[in-house]
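**Discrete fold encoding**
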Amino acid sequence: MKTGHLKIGVSSQNFRTITGHAGKGRRFFVFEAPDGADVQEIGRLDMPKEMSLHEWNGQGEHPLFELDYLITGSCGDGFIRKMGSRGVMVRTTSETDPLAAAKALLAGTLPEGAPHTHEHGHDHHHGHHHH
């Protein structure tokens, strides 16, 4: 865990709850966590479509790469790799409240999200097993 001013991004297409598909997402809360202080929202990203990482051409700087952590409901492995190569830790979570998630991340209590592979309803061919 880095110390100092941590910057934590949270994907939220509706600017209310945490949403998934971060690679296609264009809206993010940005929280900052000064050492020993409460997490606070310092800004919001509302990017044009071509700035979603899914569409981005890789030229120049990207605002998401300034983050230390990115919290999202779901994302693909490629997104995690792309962010990781820029030093950004991606965490998927079942938490839906952006501020609560940012605080939980720092406290080490952020609930894990479901694996990406289950997102597209691949479970229906297992027949009648009730989970």
Q: What stands out?
A: The chain has one domain: 6-117. The radius of gyration is 15 Å.
